[in-house]
Each structure stands twice: as C-alpha cells, then as structure tokens.
Amino acid sequence: MKMIPLGTTDIQLSAVIMGTWQAGKAMWAGIEDAETSRAMAAAFDAGVTTFDTATVYGDGHSEQVLGKALRHVRTEVVIATKVFAHSLAYDKVFKACHKSLRDLQTDYIDLYQIHWPAGAFGSPKVPIEETMQALATLKQEGKIRAVGVSNFSRKEIQEAEEIGVVDSYQPPYSLFWRQMEETAIAYCREKGITVLAYSPMAQGILTGKFGPEPKLEKGDHRAKNILFQPEHFRRIQSALDALRPIAERNELTLGQLALAWVVSQTGTCAIAGARNAAQAVQNARAGGVTLSQEELAEIDRIGRTVTDHLGDDPVMWKW
Predict the structure, then answer these.
(1) N or C, which terminus of the chain has less Cβ within 10 Å?
(2) 53 is in which domain, residue-wise?
C-alpha cells in the first residue's frame, strides 16, 4: 500500500481510503451493519489504514459502526470525519465534534473536515473565519489533529487558508468526473494540500457492473447522479469497453484500474466504499499498483470521451 503525507502534518494516509457513506444506511439500499464491520476489518487487514466518515451519514450511524469496528486498532488507523454545513457556527462546531468523538468512541479525530461550505443545502451563511477559529481551538485542545475541507471551490479554499492551515481537500474526482482538476485541485497540488478523492469509481460506474442500462433499487441516491443519466451513460459504456484491455493487461478489475488511476495523480488518495469484505480487499489492492506513463496517457484519453461532454457544475447529483 502506498502511503501519502497529509498536508503539512506527520500523518500518513493509505493511498486507498475506505469510505463509509454507505455504512450510515440512509440513502443506500441493502446495507447491513455486520457486513459493513467485516468489510472494515478486511480493509484494515489488506493494508488500508485510513477511514473516512461524516456525522451526516445516517445521523452518526456510520461513525458509530466505524468506531466500534476499529476501537481495538485505534492507534494504528487514521480516522477522518466531517462537520456538516448546518453546524459551522462557532459553538455548533464544538457540539458536532463532541458528538462525533462519542460516536467514534475516541478522544481525538485525526482529520476533521468541513463537509460542505456554509450556505449549502439552505444552511446559515456563517463566515469562514468563525468556523476556522473553532477548528483551531479544537486542534489546540487535542480533539483534532488536522483540518480539511470538502466540496469547496478554489476561492473558498483560499479564503479558509487565509485564516488557518488546510491540510486536505475532498472533491468528487474520478476518471469520469474531473470538473475541479484545473481549479481547486490544481491549487491544492501547488500548495501541498492533500487531495482525498471521493467517488473515485464514479459511484460504481467504473466497475462496469451496471451494464448498458443501470438498475438501481428504490431509495438509491445514485439515480440522481448525472453520470447515470442516459445521455452520458451511453458514452460511458464505450469508454469502459476501451478500458477493459488495459485492466486485463495489468490483471486488474475495471474498478481497481479506476482507483489506480486516481492514486497515480500527485498527492491524491482515493476514497472507496465497500459493501462487503471482498470488495474492501479488491479496493485495497489498487493502492499498490503502478501504471506506466503510456497507460496513464491512454486512460486519460479514454476518460475524456466522457468528461468532455459534461458541464462545469462540480456537484455530481441533481438533488
């Protein structure tokens, strides 16, 4: 497993991070706590040392499952969680952090991230200074070790950096979703801010498992994902057909190839969710793959047959 430094800290992140949105159950279908716990244990055994969650994932349920599953190896793992947009006022940041600490069954959080900027989803427009000051105090108290942001624009990251240190940035980023590459991600690479790419397999599309017409269970939020819309999904099938020979040459699945492409980008980790232990182990293998420059160039060309037809909006879903 490749290890990647977290910003300016001495914290090391596994190149493949286990994402746990699905562990919260809300907005997902067919998720069981016991299976999720087994997947977390399998990920750790396969070399994944970093786990990403958020308080909004099932109103703390994901954090609770994660905390219970990893409490016996707490000092060996990096836990990243997030404070949601409706809790960015000074006092609310403390309240949210303390709830996360309880749910995670820990006395410190390695990486505490602002999940969405203030004002998102109708939340109050709290000045970034107020939120960053609260995070700085939590860091001084030893409650958190590093600060990150998620779903921010380049300008928003710069504004946060004017107040305090930002060590990570979490955007949606995959071979099929690259809207922030030339703006916020480019800025982070310039400043040494680590990129934690979420949805690096485009919410499962890059695994090739859906076939020509995706069939999603009732309640699955992916039905609102822009990439799942028919006009884009047709192009995606052609791109997947072109990617398969590259995956086969490297003895990888399509999903592993997608993750390997992401972690081949400078200072970038891939956050990959898993429904079961087998998926967790498969994902972890991608953290040790090295692709040639020729292969990376070919993968890039194929990916752009999809991304060149997408708009500029970095949000993946039509909520």
Answers:
(1) C
(2) 3-204+253-289
Question: What are the residue numbers of the active site?
Answer: 57
101, two tokens: 């600490």
Q: What is the pLDDT of residue 312?
A: 83
pLDDT digits (tens, 9 = 90+) for 61-89: 999 999 999 999 999 999 999 999 999 99
Q: How many CB atoms lie within 10 A of CB 124?
A: 12
**Domain count of the chain?**
1
pLDDT recorded at residue 140: 97
Q: What global pTM score does this model have?
A: 0.93
Yes or no: say if 121 and 85 are a contact pair by the CB < 8 Å rule: yes
251: pLDDT confidence band, cut at 50, 70 and 90?
Answer: very high
Domain assignment present for residue 65? The answer is yes
Q: Is residue 220 part of a domain?
A: no
